[in-house]
């Protein structure tokens, strides 16, 4: 096997495998190193893909149990085969990991399985338990080693009862109860999965809102919807400890008035954020620097202190999102190639896959206030839509924030079925600086959820609404 490459990518998540493909397309001799035996990283194996597979399965059950009757569909003996649900999820993951292996072969990318560790700025060692360590040289390296779950003081993740999203996605049996520490993205997606299949779910969130990093109207609306569906949501609650008691866990937390309480559950999911992963990477043998929370420091070109080493994805700063990592993978390969790619971080959308989905791009209203930026806003509920009535979807809204004089779109936030797909319209508007008025003048299909987007742009641009 070759031991000298133009570019070696370390880590095969969405950042790494996309960086490798773009590098190979640009004619570089490219290799990728992955410490596990399967490619795809967090996103494909224990993140985006398996969580969305379970979100889809559980939504089907929830619909059949609670919503079909209104459509005149009657079902008897409805039940859950949790093993089949888990097996389907595993099959979906396998199809995706095989797809990535196919792309590596198609693009003639050399794949090494093993732990990569820098020996110098142009050489790594790859350690695999099943083989002798090998040393490989390269002109350039792209670090894409991703992130791992982090915890909070007093909570020791034992992976048995006190677990992370990884174990939660592969529980051996359907539990009776689960306490989720953190009402961020992982917290609300996992709460949706388990609440829909009749598990007793409690979210303990430190902030005063669910998904506190998004526009606060989204968190408020999501809380209402999820509470109605049966999730117990405790905001302004700070978890102090979690203790594994054998077949259950005892969680101690402080409420908003600093009163201490305990709650028991079969499992506790710790969903309090993730931290960059650089363990055993041998950064000490290079000039690569990290910040106080372990993120690799880069310049605007995503190049580290070591000119031959770049870093992308969760292991550097910014949103921990698969598509952000992918954009950075393409960016670095093209920069190395002397091209002038660009990434506008303010226009990277984020989505929470609850039902309805929540999606967002640009500034939140809270950020505009903090930054003293003038804005006008429009909030449009979705209940008036013929499409929503036909589908029995009653809850949701689209919110547009724009600059008052010229109507530049500053932020768009929505909680609406298929928000993950609808938000792209807003990304295009912002990327090409199309005004709110322009966005209200184009045709949107009827009946569709996108008509709520049109109405929100109409309202934001000071025109009257048509259907409201
Ligand atoms: P990763 O995907 O973490 O990949 C890093 C890879 O590097 C891993 O395979 C790791 O084994 C390997 N590695 C690490 N160190 C070494 C080494 N020294 N040598 C060799 N290999 C190494 N994002 C979204 O955009 N949409 C979603 O719906 C979504 N859902 C999520 C659901 C969950 C439950 C979780 C946990 C995350 C989710 N994310 C989602 C976030 C997304 O998974 C990450 O942002 C994304 O995976 C980051 O990609 P990456 O390439 O930077 O790193
Ligand atoms: P997060 O930052 O979204 O949420 C963590 C939550 O934990 C916050 O709301 C925080 O206030 C709360 N918290 C912190 N300390 C607490 C305490 N002591 N008690 C109670 N609550 C506490 O992080 P996450 O949900 O763990 O997700 C990690 C990353 O994975 C995110 O950055 C996200 O971007 C990514 N992810 C994305 C998706 C998606 O795009 N759909 C899905 C899952 C994960």
Structure description:
The chain has 468 residues and is α/β, with parallel strands linked by helices. The chain folds into 3 domains: 4-148 and 275-345, 3-Layer(bba) Sandwich (FAD/NAD(P)-binding domain); 162-272, FAD/NAD(P)-binding domain, CATH 3.50.50; 356-460, Enolase-like, domain 1, CATH 3.30.390.30. The chain is 31% helix and 24% strand. The protein contains 13 helices and 22 strands. It has helices at residues 14-25, 41-46, 48-66, 82-106, 165-168, 185-196, 216-228, 322-336, 365-370, 386-390, 419-431, 436-441, 450-460, and strands at 4-10, 30-34, 110-113, 115-120, 123-127, 134-143, 147-149, 162-163, 177-181, 200-204, 232-234, 238-244, 249-254, 260-265, 267-270, 274-276, 309-311, 350-352, 357-362, 376-381, 397-402, 409-416. The strands form 5 sheets. Strands 1, 2, 3, 4, 5, 6 and 17 form a 7-stranded mixed sheet that branches. The chain has a 5-stranded parallel sheet with strand order 8-15-9-10-11. Strand 5 (123-127) and strand 6 form a beta hairpin. Helix 1 (14-25) runs parallel beside helix 8 (322-336) and helix 3 packs parallel to helix 6. The structure holds flavin-adenine dinucleotide and nicotinamide-adenine-dinucleotide. Flavin-adenine dinucleotide (FAD) binds next to helix 1, strand 2, helix 2, helix 3 and strand 4.
